[in-house]
């Protein structure tokens, strides 16, 4: 049977949201390992096998894709040690430590998020994407609109974190202005929380990842081209 989660998984995350401290977590760590970590790694493995057919450059070992439950609190005023969700990030090979386009999965009591795109890229990547979209905005809009129009996917635009002004060096009156002022690009779908308990879980995720793969590839194209040129100069 395809991998999915048991009700105990969402119950654990609900409890963690109310008791976000080390004593509570450590006392229930075996539950976390059994009900959340193990099925998440198994689901990632199944998704990886499917992605070999449409996004092979995003496939890595499951433990590299699953994100840590532990929060980085070194520079945060919020000292709660744990995230309140379980997540996975399929970065493009070679962009694991940066912010190129990829595929994202998040499980929480609020719902199942399936997303694809670029989120807050680093400066050089941000500039490369904006330059690319300035030239190819029509193709991006057409692909984005096609995905949103497919109601069976339930995909909507992610929050673009829009700037109030057009970035320096770009035409504020140009047809791509809204895309250039964005700092995030892509789509996401929010499914009911109990979707993680259904045998169709992996299929539901893969269907959306596969549909969004051309959009992710389009966003990664200028970054990959820049890295290729940089490598040729070494």
Model description:
With 234 residues, the protein is of the alpha+beta class. Helix 3 packs across helix 7 and helix 5 (123-149) runs antiparallel to helix 7 (201-233). A five-stranded antiparallel beta sheet has the order 1-2-3-5-4. It has seven helices and five strands. The longest helix has 33 residues, at 201-233. A hairpin with a 2-residue loop joins strand 2 and strand 3 (111-119). It is globular and about 55 Å long. The chain has helices at 7-18, 22-27, 29-51, 62-65, 123-149, 177-181, 201-233; strands at 86-91, 102-108, 111-119, 156-157, 184-191. Residues 230-234 have low confidence and may be disordered. 47% of the residues lie in helices and 14% in strands. It has one domain (7-233): BirA Bifunctional Protein, domain 2 (2-Layer Sandwich), CATH 3.30.930.
Please describe the biggest sheet, giving its number of strands, its sense, and whether it closes into a barrel. Answer: 5 strands, antiparallel
- The quaternary state of the protein chains shown equals single chain
What share of the residues lie within helices?
40-55%
Please state the CA-atom Rg, rounded to the nearest Å. Answer: 19 Å
Question: What fold name stands as the CATH topology?
Answer: BirA Bifunctional Protein, domain 2
Question: Largest sheet, order of strands side by side?
Answer: 1-2-3-5-4
Into which percentage range does the β-strand content fall?
A: 5-15%
Task: Note the run of SSEs as H and E.
Answer: HHHHEEEHEHEH
Number of strands: 5
Helix tally? Answer: 7
């Amino acid at each position: 049977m395809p991998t999915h989660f048991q009700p105990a998984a969402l119950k654990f995350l609900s409890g963690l949201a109310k008791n976000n401290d080390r004593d509570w977590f450590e006392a229930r760590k075996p539950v976390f390992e059994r009900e959340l970590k193990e099925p998440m790694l198994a689901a990632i493995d199944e998704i990886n096998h499917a992605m070999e057919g449409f996004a092979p450059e995003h496939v890595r070992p499951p433990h590299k894709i699953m994100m840590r439950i532990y929060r980085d609190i070194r520079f945060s005023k919020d000292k709660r040690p744990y995230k309140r969700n379980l997540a996975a990030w399929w970065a493009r090979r070679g962009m694991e430590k940066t912010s190129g386009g990829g595929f994202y999965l998040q499980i929480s009591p609020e719902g199942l998020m399936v997303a694809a795109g670029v989120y807050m890229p680093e400066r050089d990547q941000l500039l490369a994407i904006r330059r690319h979209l300035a030239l190819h905005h029509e193709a991006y809009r057409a692909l984005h609109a096609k995905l949103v129009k497919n109601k069976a996917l339930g995909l909507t635009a992610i929050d673009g974190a829009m700037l109030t002004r057009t970035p320096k060096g770009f035409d504020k009156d140009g047809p791509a202005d809204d895309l250039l002022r964005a700092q995030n690009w892509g789509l996401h779908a929010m499914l009911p929380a109990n979707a993680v308990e259904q045998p169709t879980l992996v299929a539901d995720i893969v269907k959306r990842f596969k549909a969004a793969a051309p959009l992710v590839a389009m966003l990664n194209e200028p970054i990959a081209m820049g890295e290729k040129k940089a490598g040729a100069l070494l």
